[in-house]
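Q: Entry one of two.
A:
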Amino acid sequence: MSAIINNSFRKYQADNFISSFDAPNNIYLAIGKKEPWAGASPGEYNETNPSDVAVPIPSDTTISPFLHHDDFIALKKIPKSNVSHVIARYDWTSGTIYRAYDHLRDDILDNVNPTTSVDEGAFYVFTETFRVYKCLSNNGNNASTVEPTGTSVNSFDTSDGYRWKFMFEVQQADVLKYITSDWIPVNSPANSSTQLEQKQVEDNAIDGSLEQIDVSAGGTGYIKDDGNAQTGSSTNTIVLAATASADNDTYNLMKVYISSGNGAGELKTISDYVGATRTATLTTNWTTIPQTDSVYQVRPAVEITSSTGSGAEARVSSITGGVIEKVSVLVKGTGYRNATATVTSGGGTNATLIPRIGPVGGHGKNAVSELGGVFVMMNTRLIGVDGGDFPVNDDFRKVHLLINPKEASSGKPAATSSTYTASEIEDDSGEIVYTEFRTPINRSSDSTEDIKLVVEF
């Protein structure tokens, strides 16, 4: 028997943890331990000779919470507004090969500690404009040289051959709270008043759409023809350039695409080709008849089949030396949970295509789930004496999360104030759920400690 903890479970736990900061819970950051690390402390750590340079590793034992309570100095309540999902930060850098989204991979696991290899690299980037983009295609494992920009609700290509999907922009209010050299905040659904661009992406996401079809093997021997249409095209024909093949039926069952000029964007199937006149007859009529300014591309046809989805349409957009290099999706369709894509004409053999199935709801629908938001950051700022309860001109070496402590007063009511001294909290009350040992941090009356704690689920 084998089993895994799904990423959806990890996100569920992270969601629940964030929700736990709502009433009636009261969660505090506690600092402790004025004295230097020294000597053995059975049950608290295993090191026998720690120091403020060689900080020990905390142990989670039955007695450790009692020892931590004894070391408490002060506590500060953490509001839910200071808690967020976070994801690993990967700054876009020219010359880096980013990993394309792959529905057959565990993106969250692979993206926690990516390497510089294509197989293990990051599949999203953080740009200098504080925006996050998901990589849908990396141009055949080539380096990215053009930084993605804009907030389009649709995926888009950059001139280096990459395809990107805008996911969200970090809001200014969250920059100081959550951005570090290692982490950036992420949330979904977006707040429509402060995250309008992200909200538009979420609203326009298409469940089961095919955003990308990868070429895993380009095959050999595929033909193509490019040029401007000649005069004489009709409602269901196109007269190809004089340089097109003079042999009958050469382009039968291939696709002709108008890339620019009159009729731009139309894609038709060729049913018959007469070489002497360079005339291709189509299975369906043009909406706009091509003219001499119409630039066409004749390419092998791509057939998409699925037992679930429908409506997607794609074309071969690049062939070099008979090898298919790129397939472009023209219509994304909807409802796909499985799909195959096959090159069905063009005279070549052995091309292999892989349609990439999008996440539930479509790319951009849930940035937290899609980008691996199984980490949660809590931000607390200790400013000077902070409510008169935080001493200055002294050190602390422990940081804890303490859930639902009680006041050390008559009746032992629940602690609800913003700050407390250690003596104002009932001994051993509450639940310590996080412990971190640190080198000494000295506090002064004009200092501010910006403490960011990250936990993984």
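Q: Entry two of two.
A:
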Amino acid sequence: MLDSRQHTNRAWTILILLASAVVAIILWQFTSFQDALARMPRGWTVAGAPVAGQKPQDIVLKLGAAFSQTVTLHYRDETLTLSPQEIDFTLNQTATLQTLDGARAQVGSGSEGFLYYLSQRVPPPRNIPAVTTFSEEKLRAFLTSVSQNYDQPPTTAAPLIEELRFVPGQPGSELDVSASVPLIAAALQSATRRDVKLVVKTVPPIPPKLRLLRDLLDAYLKRNFNGQAGVYIKDLQTGEEIGLNENVAFSGFGLLKLPILIETYRRVNSRPDDATLQLVKETATSESDNTAANALLQRLGDNDAYTGADRLNLSTRYLGLVDTFIATPYDQNVNPPAIVTRANSRVDINTNPDPRMQTTPEDMGILLEMLYYCSKGGGALMVAYPNAFTSDGCARLLNYLSQATLTDPNGGAPMFIRAGLPAGTRVANKWGWDSETRTNAGIVFTPDGDFVLVIFLRQPNWGNWQLASPTMADITRTAYNYFTLPK
């Protein structure tokens, strides 16, 4: 009996001891839980900084120190600093403490929170932002000052007169203030990431203006050509045009075969019969034979070349080419009727134009432009003469003119406009000359855009027609260099 009682007492003692241990452990865990309630959980960050086990009031003090540090800004290769005080940056300590306490309380308190704690469960990671304010107006003013000091304006192309080319324009840089503001705001509100790469936009180079080409050509001709020059150039993409003596009357001759060809196509609705087509090809591609051109004038005039010339003149005037005319067919040694135009009435400049055939650089350029747009299905030819032209017909005529190649009879090298172009460049062109005037007009086709180029060079008694080729080649090369500038 005694042994039974002793065994029972021993069991109660052990039970009491165990219960006491459990109570002690629970009290210890509860005490730890109470302490944990005042600290931030594992995996949590505040303003980007890890804060596990830290008390909110200590965190706020550390945030104040972190937020007082400058923010480093990068404008490409430049490094700048921004002091938070410059833009009235302020940490609201009271509101931040309330936010931290509220976030910690959401994990749980009381018996529910204690059981959560005992289960060793860890709340999911979370970043809690600090409560801050700053003056966006002052920040934008600061960035505007940065922009004024560090932005680089784009440049346009610059001419190199001696080399007859252009230095391409350079891109610029521009600070994107609106896009940079939120990045800086995020850095200001971060305790750890206080480095910002500002948003800087690349500004493309300023597109060059065609007058840049005009000025270079003008300088070149004044230095290198002792005579009278007429130049007309038109950008067939933008419609921009320039000229040097573009409205001055010059002898036309071979160049006047262009309106003859176009008028022929108008008369036959772009569908010449075989005989007429053969004359067209010969007129478009022949270097010097005028027989085919006279034959076309006869067809335009119902077997009378003079009547054909009169009808051609009516058509050119209708198209607005009022300074272009053919008074007599080719190779006619007769006194032509006097035809007065605006161009040959000028008193400020006189190129001694032949009274039989005259035109201006601008008239020939506009005519080529009309043919070009007609080949695309539009333009002034189709407007002026509805149903008389087809795009296919105009394209075929351009193709014939592209086959016309003027070469040096001594070596076979390309001459005039073709001499200034890279090998293989397409140019639909026509040329001509008399004792004083050399001319070439064409459409140059490049991967970067097509353009009209008309050149007249006049110099009294300057001899062989080939002497004009180097100057024409230089003018052409300069124009080509302009139109192939990087965009």
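A: Comment on entry two: Residues 106 and 113 are 9 Å apart (CA to CA). Residues 27-36, 109-115 have pLDDT under 50 and may be disordered.
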